Each structure stands twice: as C-alpha cells, then as structure tokens.
C-alpha cells in the first residue's frame, strides 16, 4: 500500500504556523547545546539495564482510558482523561501514581499503526510525564482491585508543537515488594489529534452508514387475503426496539452527515411487522407477532432520518457477490436471482421510505474484489463497486493516500474505501476504554491522511456491514468529532465516485489468487446454489397451474433472494436449514394438488368409463392441468381409441374434480393403468397413480344364454302353430261335407281350430307328439338393452357396462 510509505510531506501552512515551528526549534537549541556539554554518556550496558528496569513489570497494572475529552482539543481547551487502574499482580503496589505522557509527533499513518501495536512501556518512545499537579496518586493498589482516576490538564500545559497526531499515554508507576524501586507498571496509549488553526486543504470524507440485518422472514404466508407473513423468529423486534442495534443505528445516524446504505429486505421485513404477522414456534405451530408499535416507531424515525440524505439501496437481501462469483455462476438461474434482487430494490425502498434511492453501487464483503466478483457485481446493472484499500492495493509508489475513485475498465468505477479507517471499529467495543481508543485512532488516521499532501482528496469510510450497538456508538462519536473538526468536510458517496481520480493510483483489480482465504472459507458452496436452482424449478412447475401465481411467486422469490444473502457467512448450518425449509414448503404446497389413489377395478363388458379424481387442497384454484390416463396393455384395454387419453383439469380451491375416461376391452385379463397429471407444457406434475383393471367378458356370455333361450321359445311357438293347422285339416276330412258351411253361418265365423283354448292346444300336443304339425306363431320382439350409466365407479368398485 502507498500508506506503508506515507509521510507528512511539506504541506503549506499559515505564516504563524511556520513561526511557531521555528520558535520551537530555537527554543530547543540551548537545551541541545547544554546536552552537548554534559559528561560522556554512560556505557551501553548501563543504558540497557535502566531500560530493563523501566520496562520490567509494565503489564502488572491494567490501565484503562475510559474517556478523553475533547477528542480533538483546541488551544483554549482542557483535556480530561478518566479511567481505571487495576492491579493484576499478586503483590500490592505502593506509592502508585498515574501520569499523563505526551509522546512525539507521529509523521506517518504507519507510525500510528506502530504505536497501536506496542504493548510494553518503552522509555524514550512513550514520552515524558506532564508532571506537576496533573497526576493522580494512590498510596496502595490492592491486587484485583480497580481504582478510578480523572486528570484534567489545560492544552497550553502540554507544550504541543506543530499540527499533527501526538501519542498521548496514561501510565502508572509504583513499587512492589519484589521490585522496591519506582517503575512503570502499566501504560495505555492513545492519540491526540492537534490542528487548532484549521487545515489549508480539507479532506472530503464520505461516511457509509449501513442498515443491514440477517434474514428473518420465511416463504410461508397465511391463507387470508392479505397473506399474513410468517417470521422465522422475533429477533428483528429486538434489534429495532429501544437500545437495540438497529434502533441505535437510526438514532445516531440521523444526527450525522452520512450516506445511508440500506438492504431493502430489512425495510420489507419491518414494514411487514407493522401489520399482522406470525412467528414460527415449535413444529408447525406459529404465534401472533406483537411488535407492531415498535416497527412503526422505527420506520417513522428512519423516514425522518433519511430525508434530504443520500440513500444507496443494495440488491434485495444483500446477495453475497463473492460466493456467487466463485461458486454460483455455473449454476443455471443464479445470476437471474441477482437481477431480480436488483430490480425490486428501488421500488421497495421508495415505497417504504418515500425517497428515491441510488441503485448503481455493489458492495462485496469487506470490499474484497477480484475480476470475477467485479463481473458479477456489474452484471445486474451496477457500474460502481465499493472496494477497500487492503484489496485494491496501491503499487504506484504514491507518497499519499489517493482518492477513492478508480476507473477499472469496462465503464466500471471502483470506489476504494480506506482500510485503516474502515476497520477501526471492529471487535468488542462494549468496554468504554476500547471504544475511546477506537475513536482516537480513527481521528488520528484521518488527520495523518490529511497532512500527507496539499492535494484535496475524496476518502470513503466503509465500516462493517452490521455494527453492534456499542460499535455504532463509537462510530457516531468519531464521525461527530470528525465532522466538527477542522481538516475534513462531508461528501456523499456518489460525489466520491465521480471525483477526478489520481493519475498515479492503481486501477488493476487483483487476481483471484489474492482473494483472502479466510473470506473464501465462509462463502456459500456450489451445493447451496444448486439447491436454490432446484427449488426454483419446483416453483416454476407449480406456479403455472395456479389461478393467482403472485400469491406464491412473490414470497418464494424474495425467500430465494434471502438464501443468497451475505449474512449467511459464518452460519453455514443455519443457511442449510433455511434452504431445506424453503424446499420442503414448496413441496408441501405442490402436494396439495394430487390424484386420489385407486384400487383394482373389475371391468365387465366390452366398454365402460373409468373415473379419476383430482383433489385440490389449496386455497386458490388450479388450472392449466392435463390429466393423462395410460393403458400399459392397449391390446387388452384401450383408453379412448388409443393407449392413452388426456383431458383438461380445473379445480377450485378446496374442491375435487372427477374426470371420466371411456375404455374398451379387447380381451380378458389384467391391464395396468397409469394416471398422471401434466402441466400444459408437458411437464409431469406430482406422482402418478397406478391401478389394475381386470377385464372379464361376462356380458357377452349372458347375451348368448338369453339369445339361446329366446330362440327355443320361437321354435316352440312355431311347432305349436303347425300342429294346430294339421289337426284342423284332419278334422275336416273325417266330418265330411255339411249342409250349411262354416262360411255361411254369420254367428259362428270361427273354424273349430280357431276356437281352441290354450288347454286344448296342450292336450293336442300331448296327443300328436312334440310339435309335429303345430301351427306357426309370430316370434316376440327382441327386448331393449339398458343404456350405459355415465356415473363414475368408486375406488375398488365393480364396473359393469
């Protein structure tokens, strides 16, 4: 990095600053002359012994600086340092005294880092005590017991010289029984930024203020009209409640001149909490959410905070660009999810906050970039990538930190945040001492950066994505001091990105081999993107049958955006559980549209109808489905006029529909039939239902028997008729001619044969034998066959047609 070799340089200063520095030089001349007249220096081994005495046991007492005010003092100010000293040793410390020590002027930003890295007291480097009455004495420090101190010293008593960053330390010296001489037993170092007259050229500083959380909403929604959302937990309510992390971010940020960087998923989640919502419990149970008031209050405060401020909207759910670039680009549909997340970002922010956000910034994790990350980051429309200076390292040998904007090719600008300033507030800052040191270190780095050059530069401060409440408080204190200081002025992120870049700044994106291994280990694996793609395919197959697809597409689409979130880093097990839950839920919904199982069917006859029932347990109707019934033995059983037949299916929510298929039997035996639902584009939907159809030619046999019986009746009637005619002819021959013929008697027109009763016929048959000579009778007409019933057969019922 260029900062590794940076120096204050020869920046112009007002005349009085030059006079002051020159006066300090002349004032030190007599002292220098006196030193030259002193006796020869002690032998080197003696100096070493004194240094060891001074340094020995310098970690025996823990010194904590809990507050330093003002953080950036002026000429007329009084610096007050408060904190505690704690004896960590086993022996009491006597004649203890807390001193303030002013070290030398730190010439470079690297010098600031060096001071931070030192632990033991080092004589000469840690400055001399201010002394006088500006001390705090303790007669005795008991082991394990903390003592408070507070020391105030006017700035003019510190003898500060030129503008810059001074090492400012608090030390405790005393004696122990084992070491009965005065020695430094503990020290805490911090920094004192000093620029009372104002900078000739101010640094333009952009402060990113991130509002990002983990994902909390599930894909599940209620069956009511408003689709009540279901949350995985109620942790978001804790974050936005008074004192919570996100509540602190908003409360502190509204007083600062910052660029808000917001994940739209956070806004959508809190907005959903303002109305009815539910929270998952044990098993499949859910409970009603109760934090509507907190959600409304937080959103109201945020809406007020962002007015007239720049708002940058990240893609929905803050997708992990590095994971996508390294493991997801070869998985179909992954980049489409990034595009969808980008497309909905602006609308989400505008609908909730009523401000128009900027959406052309991408922010990889920790600002770490390589060519594939840049390619993915810009694939969805962003043309600016927020990087960090420990990734896009300076190689041009510049003696100062260059401006943030760097053209990296392809119309893309890398906005390089300053790594030293951006990483100051990481770690545990719950202790006041840790927070105070972080604030002073941040200010020291900013002032040292400003003093590097007369050239005005644009610098970006991009902290961690999800600061804790204590980290947010420290950040706010530092930014407040910076924006109230004399060497920096605020600037929006868009202005920093469009500022003129330094000609000597690096524009080469580092190769993938330089990507930090610690970050790569936290990435979403390829299997995660493959599972997301599988879930998407199931969703695509499911939505085409719905009468109102939006009820499913929107919550599932946003849920899959959340599965690509940066917030899953370091939580691989939880991420896998979430993906599994989403896939299981889409499976459960799809299974609500199913075929009713059927048992074996007995088919008696040449033709019949087979009913198949489709059940829809969804709250909305399904359509665009095709039910196909297929015979695996078409030579035995035809469906329709072929091996299979299809019919369109539409079923209202909570109902079922029975579809009837006409079949024809070709031969006796078993035939396996398969019922399967398909979408209109030919994709199988759900599991098939297979059942057996047993074909028997029972009806043909019955008809043969009936036909044979009918034929016998006809033959019997014919014999009776012929026998009657023959009997009548014989009677006529035996009686001979009569005087009056039968035809001449008008009262008796019938012949003797016509007057025969059935009983007479039977007697005649008995007399003459079986039908021989019986009179012929017209046959009875064939009986009508009943029409086939159109009613469906039940499962396992006998179907006779």
UniProtKB/TrEMBL annotation:
InterPro entries for the chain: DUF6049, Ig-like_fold, TonB_box_CS
Bias (Basic and acidic residues) ranges: 752-770
Segments crossing the lipid bilayer: 698-718
Segments for region (Disordered): 492-520, 728-801
Record key words, sorted: Membrane, Transmembrane, Transmembrane helix
Residue ranges with Acidic residues bias: 732-748
Gene3D superfamilies according to UniProt: Immunoglobulins
A Pfam entry, by short name: DUF6049
Protein name (record): DUF6049 family protein
Protein's organism: Streptomyces coerulescens
Source organism phylogeny: Bacteria, Bacillati, Actinomycetota, Actinomycetes, Kitasatosporales
């Amino acid at each position: 990095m260029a900062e590794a070799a940076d120096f204050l340089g020869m920046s112009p200063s007002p005349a009085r600053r030059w006079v002051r520095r020159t006066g300090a030089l002349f004032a030190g001349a007599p002292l220098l002359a006196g030193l030259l007249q002193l006796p020869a220096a002690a032998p080197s081994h003696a100096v070493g012994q004194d240094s060891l005495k001074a340094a020995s046991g310098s970690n025996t007492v823990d010194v904590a600086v809990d507050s330093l005010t003002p953080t950036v003092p002026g000429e007329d100010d009084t610096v007050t340092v408060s904190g505690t000293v704690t004896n960590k040793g086993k022996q009491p410390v006597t004649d203890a005294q807390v001193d303030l020590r002013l070290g030398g002027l730190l010439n470079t930003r690297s010098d600031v880092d060096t001071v931070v890295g030192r632990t033991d007291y080092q004589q000469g480097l840690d400055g001399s005590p201010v002394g006088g009455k500006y001390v705090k004495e303790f007669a005795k420090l008991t082991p394990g017991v903390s003592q408070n101190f507070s020391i105030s010293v006017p700035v003019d008593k510190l003898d500060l010289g030129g503008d810059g960053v001074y090492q400012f330390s608090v030390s405790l010296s005393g004696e122990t029984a084992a070491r009965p001489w005065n020695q430094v037993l503990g020290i805490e170092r911090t920094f004192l930024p000093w620029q009372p007259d104002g900078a000739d050229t101010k640094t333009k500083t952009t402060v990113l203020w991130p509002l990002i959380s983990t994902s909390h909403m599930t894909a599940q929604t209620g069956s009511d009209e408003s689709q009540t959302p279901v949350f995985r937990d109620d942790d978001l309510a804790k974050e936005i409640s008074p004192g919570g992390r996100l509540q602190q971010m908003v409360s502190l940020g509204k007083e600062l001149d910052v660029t808000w960087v917001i994940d739209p998923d956070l806004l959508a989640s809190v907005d959903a909490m303002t109305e009815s919502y539910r929270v998952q419990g044990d098993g499949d149970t859910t409970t009603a959410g109760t934090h509507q008031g907190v959600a409304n209050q937080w959103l109201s405060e945020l809406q007020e905070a962002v007015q007239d401020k720049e708002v940058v909207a990240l893609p929905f759910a803050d997708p992990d660009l590095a994971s996508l670039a390294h493991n997801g680009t070869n998985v179909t549909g992954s980049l489409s999810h990034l595009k969808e997340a980008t497309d909905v970002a602006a609308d989400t922010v505008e609908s909730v906050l009523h401000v128009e956000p900027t959406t052309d910034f991408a922010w990889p994790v920790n600002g770490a970039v390589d060519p594939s990350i840049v390619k993915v980051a810009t694939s969805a429309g962003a043309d600016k990538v927020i990087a960090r200076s420990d990734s896009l390292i300076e190689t041009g040998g510049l003696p100062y930190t260059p401006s943030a904007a760097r053209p990296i090719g392809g119309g893309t600008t890398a906005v390089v945040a300053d790594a030293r300033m951006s990483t100051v507030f990481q770690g545990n800052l719950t202790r006041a001492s840790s927070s105070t040191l972080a604030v002073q270190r941040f200010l020291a780095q900013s002032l040292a950066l400003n003093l590097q050059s007369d050239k005005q530069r644009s610098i970006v401060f991009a902290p961690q994505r999800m600061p804790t409440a204590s980290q947010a408080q420290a950040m706010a204190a530092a930014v407040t001091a910076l924006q109230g200081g004399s060497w920096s002025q605020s600037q929006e992120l868009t202005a920093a990105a469009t500022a003129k870049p330094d000609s000597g700044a690096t524009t080469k994106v580092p190769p993938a081999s330089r990507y930090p291994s610690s970050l790569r280990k936290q990435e979403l694996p390829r299997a995660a993107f493959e599972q997301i793609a599988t879930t998407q395919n199931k969703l695509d197959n499911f939505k085409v049958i719905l009468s109102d697809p939006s009820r499913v597409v929107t919550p599932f689409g946003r849920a899959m955006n959340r599965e690509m979130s940066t917030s899953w880093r370091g939580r691989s097990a939880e991420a896998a559980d979430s993906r599994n839950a989403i896939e299981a839920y889409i499976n459960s919904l799809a299974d609500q549209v199913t075929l009713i199982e059927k048992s074996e069917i007995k088919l008696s006859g040449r033709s019949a109808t087979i009913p198949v029932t489709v059940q829809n347990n969804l709250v909305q109707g399904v359509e665009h489905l095709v039910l196909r019934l297929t015979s695996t033995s078409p030579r035995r059983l035809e469906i329709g006029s072929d091996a299979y037949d299809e019919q369109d299916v539409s079923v209202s929510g909570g109902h079922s529909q029975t579809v009837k298929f006409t079949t024809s039997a070709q031969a006796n035996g078993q035939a396996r039939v398969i019922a399967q639902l398909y979408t209109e584009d030919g994709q199988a939907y759900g599991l098939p239902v297979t059942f057996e159809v047993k074909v028997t030619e029972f009806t043909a046999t019955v008809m043969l028997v009936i036909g044979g019986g009918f034929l016998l009746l006809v033959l019997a009637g014919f014999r009776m008729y012929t026998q009657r005619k023959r009997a009548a002819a014989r009677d006529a021959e035996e009686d001979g001619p009569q005087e009056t013929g039968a035809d001449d008697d008008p009262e008796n027109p019938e012949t003797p044969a016509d007057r025969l009763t059935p009983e007479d016929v039977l007697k005649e048959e008995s007399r003459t034998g079986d039908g021989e000579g019986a009179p012929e009778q017209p046959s009875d007409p064939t009986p009508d066959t009943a029409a086939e019933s159109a009613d469906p057969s039940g499962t396992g019922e006998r179907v006779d047609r």
